[in-house]
Amino acid sequence: MPGSSPHLQGQTTHIVEKVGTPALMMNKRTIREKYQEFRDQFKGARVYYALKANPHPGIVQLLQELGCEFEISSLGELESLLQLKVPTQGIISGNPVKERAFVERAHVSGIDLFAFDSYAEIDKLAECAPGSRVTVRLTVPNDGSEWPLSNKFGVESEDAADLLVRASARGLRPVGITFHVGSQCTKAATWAKAIDKSRIVWELAADRGIQLHLLNVGGGFPIEYLRPVPSTAEIAEVIHESVARAFPGGVDLAIAPGRALVGEAGILAATVIAKAVRDSKPWIYLDVGVFNGLMESVGGIKYRILTPRDGPPIQCVLAGPSCDSFDVISTEAEVPHLEVGDRIHIMSAGAYTTAYASQFDGFHIPAIHYTE
Ligand SMILES: Cc1ncc(COP(=O)(O)O)c(C=O)c1O
Asked: What atom of ligand 1 comes closest to residue 137's alpha carbon?
């Protein structure tokens, strides 16, 4: 299990004794290893870290030192990278829905690759970032994704080709296709389907005089929460085989992992602050909940929880601290009998936790600390 080595648990406990909870411990070695895994499995591809997963400056600095590039969506994300002196040649924007002020600032800062999926976005890019390189976002199946992204973005093949032609007519430079198979995608075959679909758009565009060369296969690489998931190597093999079959002439490949680069590096340390029995069911209340770190639990993400106690697991409701009944982390958690004051470790919590968190009801967002 990622993060469960006695050494790492020891480091976490030691820091938590000093800083208290809730606290998110990010392990630098795991991030380094994950980045190296992507580098090894995707030789020759550009690797862009999707900053939204966890934008903490320490993570940006570490990934930058390792040579990683960045995928961003907003002015806020851009400003934070500029502050950290990240070179803009290594930044792209994969969000097809962008604020005007962001596009303008990105363009003057030197960012030159944007995704789009609508005529309105083409107009915006043509006005605010004239001459930029652009990729069209394609809708693709999200089979096996535990956090699907399919409804909100993307266009079908014919529309994608029309949009690429229009982008070119507006003076933008259409260079490729981007897609996202949905976050925490546990089926490697879903990437194969998306790549086959990209091939159709590639040909439709070529028939209309647009030669593409870039294929961004996005994020979606899964991490281990409770169940084993396909490894990066297994998914990479499927992607490479599919690309070789669908694009015999080759493509410039890009990937944009978020969750997989940082998720397993995070241990969220929390404290049991209260207990109750309701309708004969035990309830355990933590100092971290849906609003201040565990938002993804409402979409079905289930975390492994390590506790200081042995004993048989008891089914209970695990809830956050706020006065809102929406603040329930799990209605069927299984943990040993716990007491108020016990410290627990929520595993694989490095992605989409503090990044989503608010201080609703006055509860703290977990501070981030680093372990080696
Ligand atoms: C455009 C884009 N790229 C990459 C990612 C990262 O996805 P994941 O964290 O599933 O790897 C996202 C996530 O929403 C995204 O919207």
From this structure: 1
